[in-house]
Amino acid sequence: MGFVRCLILALSKKSNLLAHQLIWNIRTNTYKNEDTPDNEMQAKLEPIARQIEIDFTTDARNFYERVFAFSDRLTKVSETIKVYPKGNARKEACLQALRSIGSEVPPGVYLPSNPEAIVISLLPESGAPMQSAAKAPYRATFRVQTVGIEQVECCADPDYELRQDFSNQYSQMAIFKVGDDVRQDILALQLMRLFQNIFEQEGLELYLYTYRVIATSPGCGVIECVPNSRSREDIGRNTEVGLFEYFRHVYGKDDSIKFQKARRNFVMSMAAYSIALFMLQIKDRHNGNIMIDDDGHIVHIDFGFMFESSPGGNMRFEPDIKLTAEMILIMGDLTAPAFQWFKELCIKGYLALRRYRHHFITLVALMLDTGLPCFRGHTLEQLNARLKPDSSEAEAGRYMHEVINRCAHSLRTRLYDYIQYQQNSIPY
């Protein structure tokens, strides 16, 4: 630990932003969960965090305190509004809390999930509590300016003044959570990033959007929103049409170039996420957790249930892949060329992951001692079994083909969507 400690402290002196990320990381990983400290990790890591703080220059300390105070205030809004019932009361409490913060955004701060951009302003009226009765995550929008890591580092200098560049300013949405261990989301996204690297290395046309998630303290985190996208739930609430009709409304007739491009993007992303859902056994795939971006890609979010955990006391009710009738309809039908290409991409992507299986099995193995709820004793054994290590490539390909066929038009998918509609009013 001595060499690692010296390396961490040396690197922290070279970069304020790295020091911030390390402190957030240490804050989080010295606890097994929100309420249970990990005494062994605390003994090793807390002295490192204290030394990082001691080593700050006066200007660096002011920068650190400014950024962390801003981040903590934003996160605590979730805790503040939790006591209010869902609906208008919680919404108004959220807006009121954000108005208080928005009136005094300190200069030279950034969101933990986006260290390349400086926050110009908070848009208080953008505050929106998310779907959750027991917890109270909320979404907010910020006006930020991309300046790059080096310029954000300069915010520690008290003489630094940001030159407004409207061409590099944009709206950035983020979700703030209290009472949720987002480390599981971080693991899922790390694995997906590894999957995407493998797909690119193999020259496969598969698309995963790995948004950023930062755990800032035990049970707290900041989640980057998928830009230029809408949830399938939102589409259902505002249009009352199916996904295929939505595509036709947005992109034009089936034979138009715009629709064909959107369909192509849909197939590439649908195949990639189908592989990820199967490999990581990601569950709770209701329409609030499925996004469609402006280019037609499907993007899955919220990975609170994966591997050996699932809703309803680990009932394992949902199928391996969410492949509904409306998703298939965008690709034509079960015999259409687009659907055949979808299956081909799924099989090729799955076979590519088999060839690199030791890379991500090792990553999962390193996380087994964290106590995350997705680990229940058989994670590696089951993950390895899904990869069919003792089968030939042809046999493994046929296996993946069977998985796709089994999940298409699954009754269990329809029943789960119906349950979510009855319990949480999520359209399907």
TrEMBL record:
Name the chemical reaction catalysed here. a 1,2-diacyl-sn-glycero-3-phospho-(1D-myo-inositol) + ATP = a 1,2-diacyl-sn-glycero-3-phospho-(1D-myo-inositol 4-phosphate) + ADP + H(+)
What SMART domains does UniProt report for this protein, alphabetically? PI3Kc (SM00146)
Q: Which GO BP terms sit in this record?
A: phosphatidylinositol phosphate biosynthetic process; phosphatidylinositol-mediated signaling
Keyword Transferase listed? The answer is yes
Pfam families recorded: PI3_PI4_kinase (PF00454)
CDD domains of this UniProt entry? Answer: PI4Kc_III_alpha (cd05167)
Q: Name one GO cellular component term.
A: plasma membrane
Domain of life (superkingdom):
Eukaryota
Q: What is its EC number?
A: 2.7.1.67
Q: Which UniProt keywords apply?
A: ATP-binding, Kinase, Nucleotide-binding, Transferase
| InterPro entries referenced in this protein's UniProt entry, alphabetically | Kinase-like_dom_sf, PI3/4_kinase, PI3/4_kinase_cat_dom, PI3/4_kinase_cat_sf, PI3/4_kinase_CS
Domain PI3K/PI4K catalytic, chain residue ranges per copy: 124-412
Gene3D superfamilies named among the record's database cross-references? Phosphatidylinositol 3-/4-kinase, catalytic domain, Phosphatidylinositol 3-kinase Catalytic Subunit, Chain A, domain 4
Return one GO MF term: ATP binding
Its family remark reads: Belongs to the PI3/PI4-kinase family. Type III PI4K subfamily.
Name by which UniProt lists this protein: 1-phosphatidylinositol 4-kinase
